Amino acid sequence: xxxxxxxxxxxxxxxxxxxxxxxxxxxxxxxxxxxxxxxxxxxxxxxxxxxxxxxxxxxxxxxxxxxxxxxxxxxxxxxxxxxxxxxxxxxxxxxxxxxxxxxxxxxxxxxxxxxxxxxxxxxxxxxxxxxxxxxxxxxxxxxxxxxxxxxxxxxxxxxxxxxxxxxxxxxxxxxxxxxxxxxxx
Length: 185
What we know:
The protein is of the alpha/beta class. The chain has 6 helices and 7 strands, in the order E-H-E-H-E-H-E-H-E-H-E-E-H. The longest helix has 12 residues, at 34-45.
């Protein structure tokens, strides 16, 4: 089912999502990959303030290529989400409500998603050039020295994702193979 939601996320929108839903996000999201997550963890351990408010926000695990002339960003495909699994539960406990990446997540992340009534989305890997067309603005807001791994604030218009783990813990990567096998019988 196609759904259209705004970011930052509203709890009622999250609750209305189910694993397998096609979702189009409009609003503000943030990018962060491995190096930025490590810096955020170090900041939190030092009782510092993160460079953006986590509450109700979405982090997209992405490092873009350079922008072409006239575009706000270059190719903007997802990176493997499991690399952020050691950081995600804490960020979810601090108010993060959505993550976008590709691939499976750990049991600890799934439990944190359920505990915090959050959601994990997948963006299509290998489609970074297409995904970048849904990004209308990009601004580095922290850790500029990390290059493509700097934290960026993005404005997106109908950014296409699929719900992988919903707020109830249903996981598309568990459900879809069973549905496929049953359809072939």
